[in-house]
Design a protein that fits this description.
Layout: E1 3-4, E2 8-11, H1 18-25, H2 28-31, H3 44-56, E3 61-66, E4 69-78, E5 86-93, H4 102-117, E6 122-128, H5 132-140, E7 144-155, E8 158-168
Parallel strand pairs: 5-6
Antiparallel strand pairs: 1-2, 2-3, 3-4, 4-5, 6-8, 7-8
Helix pairs in contact: 1-3
The structure holds coenzyme A.
Length: 172
Amino acid sequence: MTVTDGVVSLRPFHREEAPRLAELANNEKIAVNLRDGFPHPYTLADAEKFIEIALSKPDQIFAIEFEGEYVGNIGVHKKSDVYRYGAEIGYFLGEPYWNKGIMQRAVNLVCDYAFRELDIIRIDTGVFEFNPASMSVLEKCGFVKEAVFRKSVVKKGKIWNEVRYARLKEEV
Ligand SMILES: CC(C)(COP(=O)(O)OP(=O)(O)OC[C@H]1O[C@@H](n2cnc3c(N)ncnc32)[C@H](O)[C@@H]1OP(=O)(O)O)[C@@H](O)C(=O)NCCC(=O)NCCS
């Protein structure tokens, strides 16, 4: 599955992109904003394992492409049980590509796709309180700040708040 707005595309990973994924993902400034399941340091083996997972869930995990290059990852993960009409998004972009509006485009693309194809009515995520760039992306994409989960996260050896955002299908 590939979707595009003419500038940014979301598409399946290519196995030969593992070295570039490892290179871009092996960055403390990225890892600090993500859950600890995102390895740091990030090795080629981590990248190869991730790409296999992505290829096994081609409807939920995508490579982000900009000007013909692989630049980052985005996923929209369907929930289960009573939360099954919802999904959680997660994303990162390689540092050379920050602040060009790429992630705003990628988030809009993945939301439009997921509301159309995945039988969900809500997409949410949490942002650590020290990540204003990600909050700005979500707000520009129509996400509403719903809550602050106080002192819910441990990162960098300290306790932090997490800001929860959601976008509803009926609102866009
Ligand atoms: C967060 C991230 C995805 C943003 O991607 P991006 O393509 O640079 O985002 P965009 O260019 O679409 O938008 C970035 C916005 O953040 C703003 N921004 C950037 N740094 C900022 C800062 N330190 N303080 C406040 N705003 C900031 C930019 O000005 C821009 O807003 P604008 O368009 O209104 O000017 C990227 O920095 C990243 O991958 N970070 C590491 C991983 C991560 O944080 N993932 C999300 C976890 S919730």
